[in-house]
Amino acid sequence: MSVLSNLEPESVFGFFEEITKIPHGSGNVGQISDYLAEFAEKRGIRCIQDSLKNIIMIKEAAPGYEKEPAVILQGHMDMVAVKKPDCDIDMKTEGLKIGVSGDLIYAEGTSLGGDDGIAVAYILALFDSDTIRHPRLEAVITVDEEVGMDGARGIDLSVLTGSRMINLDSEEEGIFLTSCAGGARVHCSLAVTGSQREGMAVEVTLGGLQGGHSGGEIHKERGNSNMLFGRLLGRLTEKLPVCLVEAEGGLADNAIPRQTRGVLLVREADTAQFNEILKAVETELQGELASRDPGFFLETGGFMPGTYTCVMEEDTKRLAAFLTALPNGVQAMSADMPGLVETSLNLGILRYEGGKLLAEFAVRSSVESAKYALIDRVAAVTRLAGGLSSSTGDYPGWKYRKNSPLRDKMVSVYEEMYGTSPRVEAIHAGLECGILGSKIPDLDCVSLGPDMSGIHTTEETLSIASVRRVWEYLVRLLERKDD
């Protein structure tokens, strides 16, 4: 049974609901890509599906619009697939359970994928319509944007004729984005020595944090559960002989982690002091996070005696020192644009497996040299701790264009429709515009989208009214001929 069938615009919400029924987390895009290719084939639309599963669709201009500049519509088909610990949905094989609450669409127990499923829905609705007047439309729908922009990096755009691109990967209505930071993923690995030890094992969980997108919400200085776990481990190893048995936190490098779980081994004689330290750290952190993360908690399970494979005490201290020394969060604010984050990083994934502690960061900066300096800093800390690091998914920033006929036209249409001016801004989060701009000569690009909140989290929502308004704006913009 359809959940969104009574919403307008019917075509946009209809396609969005179909998308939510198809598993399409990053790295698992085969089904959604084939669905898009089949959509085009059924309608006789020219479509290119490359070896990476990227999709390009082309729809010729409507009568009377043949001389208008072609417009590229761009979004990505993958989503950050995260779920609550008690959710039984297998996001690799099952669709989402969506619902409506007032003006908001949400998914039960999982992320919604409005980022960037709504962009794909807009594109499909435009290509499906026989009544909307428009210039030549060239859709570029990429894969794996959320894990390094691999689709944008590998796609061949030589078939395109347009030099004006509307990116549909933004989350605030009324804001036109015209530049963004560049970034990269940094992978750190520290080998440790394991041994069999007798003692009291206890599970420790730091959670209840809000998390969020590491580009759009890093400036809010919310708690990072992986960093907080490192702080706790440091306090414990200062006072007690503690061994790490297990550690896992975070789901994606570009999502601020909300929960980190660890299992630690202590001597039976130290259990009382262990609990005292945990209580003290919990009180400290709850005080520090009272305004930003009021739901923070630090929970422990019961002590379980036994023999466990664990990290030796000295190596556990080394891991604690490594996590304590690492930079995280906002590193610099822009000197040119007040309020804009220039450089940041997010320890999004922490794992202990196979005799190694693995840590993954999303590094961002609108200044290329600052980005590489921060990558070097993480590498230096890792090296001093006896580990190795590497970086992948390096993508350039998107530079502001002073002369932009597309931006001027978009502002004019917005003012005509709403009687007020949109905000024209830069963002710290990464978009594919910089990579695609390196493949399209003289690309003129603006990014927009409807209101969303909590993207990359299980609290993600999409505004119904905003989706409708942005759709009406897109249609008016495409129908407006150049002066």
List keywords for this structure.
single chain, 483 residues, alpha+beta, 10-stranded antiparallel β-sheet, 6-stranded mixed β-sheet, 11 helices, elongated
Task: Give a short synopsis of this structure.
With 483 residues, the protein is an alpha+beta fold.
Can you offer a commentary on this structure?
- This protein is an alpha+beta fold.
- The chain is 29% helix and 30% strand.
- The chain has helices at residues 10-20, 30-42, 114-128, 150-154, 225-239, 271-288, 313-325, 368-384, 405-418, 433-437, 464-479; strands at residues 46-49, 55-59, 71-76, 98-101, 104-107, 137-142, 164-167, 175-180, 182-191, 194-207, 212-213, 243-249, 255-256, 260-266, 297-300, 304-311, 329-333, 341-353, 356-365, 388-395, 423-427, 444-447, 452-453, 461-463.
- Strands 9, 10, 12, 14, 15, 16, 17, 18, 19 and 20 form a 10-stranded antiparallel beta sheet that branches. A 6-stranded mixed beta sheet has the order 1-2-6-3-7-22.
- Helix 1 packs across helix 3 (114-128) and helix 5 runs antiparallel to helix 6.
- The chain is elongated, with a radius of gyration of 24 Å.
- The mean pLDDT is 96.
